[in-house]
Amino acid sequence: MTDEIEKEDESALTAEYILGLLSPAEAQAYEDVLSVDPDLRAEYAFQTDRIVALTDDIAPVTPPPHVLKRIKETLFHEGAPARSGAGVQSWLQRLGLLPAIGGGLLAALAVLWIVTAIVPPSSGPVSGATYIAQIASADESLVVDASYDSANGNLVVNRAVGDPRPGRALELWLIAGDNPPISLGVLPADRSGRVPVSPDLALSLAGGTLAISDEPLGGSPEAGPTGDVLAVGQIVDA
Amino acid sequence: MTSLTDIEDMIARMAIGDRAAFDGLYAATSAKLFGVCLRVLGNRTEAEDALQEAFVKIWRNADRYRVNGLSPMTWLITVTRNHSVDRVRARKSKMNAGMDEAADVADAAPGPEALAIAASDRGRIVDCMAQLDPDKAGAVRRAYLEGETYQELADHYDVPLNTVRTWLRRSLLKLRECLSHDG
Q1: Which chain B positions have a beta carbon within 8 Å of A21's beta carbon?
Q2: In terms of pLDDT, which residue wins out, A87 or A231?
Q3: Do the first three CATH levels of B1-118 and B120-183 match, i.e. the same topology?
Q4: Is B167 on the interface with A (CB under 8 A)?
Q5: Is there a contact between A200 and A154 (Cβ–Cβ < 8 Å)?
Q6: Is the pLDDT of residue A189 over 60?
Q7: Domain boundaries, chain B
Q8: Which of B17, B56, B125 sits opposite A179 (nearest CB)?
Q9: Which of B26, B34, B172, B180 to mutate to test the interface with A (most CBs of A within 10 A)?
Q10: Beta strands A143-149 and A236-237: pairing type?
């Protein structure tokens, strides 16, 4: 009987919450329980999925084009006249890398050229590699060599120089074309390790850029990097 | 036609920062969601602002979509509706709704992007609402689609606040009971 009453309360409260009838304090209390109680979440999902049908007869209306433009300005800082390659550049700019990029990226490319020139293709993890990159900070206090082998879908990383900051992790990002950085995961604590790359992401490696950011242990809590971007490197054919 | 699976997939890709997925989702759903903003806010300028803010929220919360257990369109409409209701309430606390602009909205025609999202069996709520007393069904709609509070419903139906809460809760339980016989 008590269960019955509790269940009724739960149902009614859920409906009131969905309709927005609870006071702010009640709604907050409801959300607190919702975040820890899977049964309540199921009840919430059940009722929301059905009550939302009250919008079924609302006719779609195409919003004017400036709405999308404003959204993109807010989210992606778009709006400046686009030029080719602007996507990557704007992301690098947002990552705070632009001041360093002229010398830094060129220097990284030069180092990469030397590395590829002097390292015999058969040695170590480079064997069988499809793409390689050297991800280096401008002052070379952090240098990570990466090589991707399409045969096994692994990106082999070797942290030649540098360590994560104390209590922090290094996270590896792929910047492909116009897209924002995609996390490839946190670098292993060991100097060398493997980072699996899903087949669809692997398609974006060619011509892309790898970057390493300073993040909380376990990686960025958000979709993109949250800490300093420490190093960057262009992906090139092995 | 964009299926619910496509929409789910676009939300998942937005969670990893895929802007092309955002463009796809916007093209597929913005007309429906703008309709919802217009319905709740009854004012074109405000509806545009609400739609903009709702899509910003959708992009930023795409990674949390999975945990709430909602179907993708339900989640998108809920985010948009809740945001529009917040705006309507903020506005009401300042001034009364502009009725002339509301009339303007009524003429808005469905756009060419009108999305054919597979009709679901959610239509059940229409039958269940029909089983409620018309006043009570009206109150549910007013709360959901116009963001009315218990106080506003009490004023509208000219009954004390506690009374409206009691009879609406009873109706919501009846509605819930009917919905569970979904079939």
Answers
A1: 143, 149-150, 165, 168
A2: A231
A3: no
A4: no
A5: no
A6: yes
A7: 1-118, 120-183
A8: B17
A9: B172
A10: unpaired
In chain A, the residue whose alpha carbon lies closest to the alpha carbon of B55 is: A71
Q: pTM for this one?
A: 0.58
N residues, chain A: 238
Q: Is the dihedral of CA B68, B72, B78, B84 positive or negative?
A: positive
Q: How far is CA A29 from the centre of its chain?
A: 32
Rounded to whole angstroms, the Cα distance separating A76 from A91 reads 9
Residues A227 and A182 in one domain: yes
Same domain membership, residue A126 and residue A27 = no
Cβ–Cβ of A47/B179 closer than 8 Å? yes
Q: What range does the domain containing A24 cover?
A: 2-55
Paired with A209 in beta bridges are A175, A234
The answer to whether B145 faces chain A, any CB pair under 8 Å, is: yes
Residue B25's pLDDT band, with cuts at 50, 70 and 90, is very high
A152-171 b/e with 16+ CB inside 10 Å = b? eebbbbbbeebebeeeebbb
Chain A (22-51) residues lying within 8 Å, Cβ to Cβ, of chain B? 41-42, 44-51
Question: Chain A contact for B2, CB < 8 A?
Answer: no
Taken as a whole, chain B contains a residue count of: 183
Chain B CB within 8 Å of residue A223 CB: yes
Q: Which residues of A18-32 are buried (b: 16+ CB within 10 A; e: fewer)?
A: bbbbbeeeebeebee
* Closest by Cβ to B70, choosing from A19, A45, A68: A45
CATH for the stretch B120-183: 1.10.10.10
A82 and chain B in contact, CB less than 8 A: no
CATH code, residues B1-118 = 1.10.1740.10
Mean pLDDT, residues A209-223 taken together: 85
Residues A140-162 have pLDDT tens digits of 788 898 988 888 888 888 898 88
* Counted domains in chain A: 2
User: Residue A78 falls within a domain, yes or no?
Assistant: no
